[in-house]
UniProtKB/TrEMBL annotation, chains A, B:
This is LacI family DNA-binding transcriptional regulator. Transmembrane segments: none annotated. InterPro entries: HTH_LacI (IPR000843), LacI/GalR-like_sensor (IPR046335), Lambda_DNA-bd_dom_sf (IPR010982), Peripla_BP_I (IPR028082). The keyword Transcription regulation applies. Keywords: DNA-binding, Repressor, Transcription, Transcription regulation. Residues 11-65 form the HTH lacI-type domain.
DNA sequence: CCGTGTGATTGGAACGATCCAAAGGTAACC
DNA sequence: GGTTACCTTTGGATCGTTCCAATCACACGG
């Protein structure tokens, strides 16, 4: 149980009713714009509402009607611009549909995710949009939200067996196609020794992105040296630290497909430190097309995902589910688009 | 009135009570960990809670207790990394205190701000943290939230007369000192013709930042040419478009203090297009220290504000107000720190 | 004059929790 | 045995809204 704070005396329907000599029920009808009430009565009531500064108590209404007007949005990393834009898309679309967004940030911790879900669920959201933290397990999520709460999974799969009786919708990026495109682009530029840098194989997005890379390499008949797969946390700083491993083996790669923009930027940093110019001495690509990607030196070739649009899509997916709770689960694989900039020049 | 959606049958206290042969009141006591209940009873009830998968209905409890366990966070631009980090700080601190964050994004539109506030207030938040949209008026905000809702204003002042009976707390950046430091730094580097670029004078932060710049220039006995004040929207793209105005007059500046990092990065873009190398051919400083600032070419000298910490602070301010509703209004001016990087080299 | 239809209004019971005063049970003491 | 005290439990009212069936006022047709 948690701390809560008292709120000041509020104006209720009873106050309005008393104030203009009608019943509570009539005022309620006015509020909801019912055609039943007489024109003059309505005018009188509306005047009184204004006069007393009435504000609707949606929680009480939701209790009585057994409805909900909120949706929980749980993100693994709000501070990441990709998710921030995603969140603003979600909020926008939910707002248009009359819902309010309950925010929860987990900071990539599965434990915090549990706590956050547990706390949000008590506020009775109509549904949940979840971008799982790394290592988050389907079993735990199910335990936290129960089998009946509509949910949209974004960006990553949950670990463990998927409970098939809870029909969860999914909005995933076309990770594999994305890195395949990037890899094919580097190959077309003339690169042959291409590494895959950053991310971790225990997240579904990491595995998928690696798979796309491997697929393109194989299709081109190019071998992959074991030391060309370097893992890192999906953050710039950790990537910069991990980068040296790329050059420890022989033969050294001339290019790298990176897990996302953050690690690509980290790799750029590390390249500079080694005296290599990204783009001309070493080619690389990112994933996400965050704002920084266009501004880096050189500008980063990457995969554009339009996170704000994704946010709207996730909201739409949830809203559709609310309209039709029994529909079978949908999975949307959002397309990604290769944006070629100057970080992926041919080898010299 | 807005659309809402039905929620499935939920387990209530009555179900639990019936399920283990005690009264509703006893179950409620167990839930709240009251020391009154007998050990064995408690165990029996807790077992039953687990068995039936009970989830607490906080809305119902809040209704009865006339409390609230949520706080509304209304931001002018969530997609901006500065505010995204701020939001994650707010959410973190609120979560620790047992509150849930209701999110609202206004996209710099005062009209949307009105709508968002109106919708959020119906959910009965214990308080509001508001980063006002450009041109947002105190009068309108007051009308939307009423005089009794605790509120923390962040980052900008509201327009119009401040209603003194509503004691609103404030968390503002030390804008003036920030740009003064930046300007003094450029002067110390040897610059004499320094412009002030970006932002608008009808937002309080814009005026304050300009004032800091003007103050430093005056203190150094440097004159300011009229065409050295160029306004723009606080976005990168608009800044890049507006930048040419800096070079239309004579004498041209050799450096610029920028309204924030976004416009500084936009200015960099424009400089490149003119064939000028930022840093060496033209010095500039930003404001905010967003992640991109350290990564730009050259890295941007800017003012660090630690937005996540600011978020925590805003939350603390609101929580303090909830504990002490009658305390007089507090204003915190958060310090900013000059981070010198390579975009502010001496003129040649 | 009565029955009936229509339009407008209303009292009271919900929703799921908490609060409060009261009561039941047991043990201890005089 | 009766009084007191303590520990535990409980019924019913309540928070602010919506729902529902019932009621009321009034006009109309037969």
């Amino acid at each position: 149980m948690e701390s809560q704070t008292p709120v000041g005396r509020k104006i209720t329907l009873n106050d309005i009713a008393a104030g203009c000599g009608v019943s509570r029920a009539t005022v309620s009808l006015v509020l909801r714009g019912s055609p039943l009430v007489n024109k003059q009565t309505r005018a009188r009531v509306e005047e009184e509402l204004r006069r007393q500064g009435y504000v609707y108590n949606r929680a009480a209404a939701n209790l009585r009607r057994r409805t909900s007007s909120s949706v929980a949005l749980v993100l693994n990393e709000l501070a990441n611009p990709f998710f921030a834009e995603f969140a603003s898309g979600v909020d926008e679309a939910l707002g248009e549909a009359g819902f309010v967004t309950l925010l929860g940030n987990t900071g990539e911790s599965a434990a915090r995710e549990q706590a956050v879900l547990g706390s949000l669920i008590e506020h009775g959201p109509a549904g949940i949009i979840l971008a799982p933290a790394e290592g988050s397990e389907a079993h735990d999520v199910l335990a936290a939200v129960g089998p009946h709460t509509p949910m949209v999974l974004f960006n990553r799969e949950l670990g463990g067996a998927q409970p098939e009786f809870a029909h969860w919708d999914r909005l995933m990026l076309d990770n594999q196609r994305g890195t395949r495109l990037a890899t094919e682009h580097l190959i077309a530029q003339g690169h042959k020794r291409i590494a895959f840098f950053g991310g971790a194989d225990d997240a579904s997005s990491g595995r998928d992105r690696y798979a796309g890379y491997a697929q393109a390499m194989q299709a081109a008949g190019l071998a992959i040296a074991p030391h060309w797969r370097v893992e890192s946390k999906p953050s710039r700083m950790d990537a910069a630290r991990a980068a040296h491993a790329l050059f420890n083996g022989d033969p050294a790669p001339t290019a790298a497909v990176c897990y996302n923009d953050a690690v690509a930027l980290g790799l750029m940093l590390a390249l500079h430190q080694r005296g290599l110019r990204p783009g001309s001495d070493f080619a690389l690509t990112g994933f996400d097309d965050i704002a920084e990607a266009a501004m880096s030196t050189p500008p980063l070739t990457t995969l554009s995902t339009a996170p704000r649009t994704l946010g709207r899509q996730a909201a739409e997916l949830l809203l559709a589910r609310l309209r039709e709770p029994q529909a079978s689960a949908r999975t949307i694989i959002a397309p990604v688009e290769l944006v070629v900039r100057e970080s992926s020049r041919p080898p010299h």
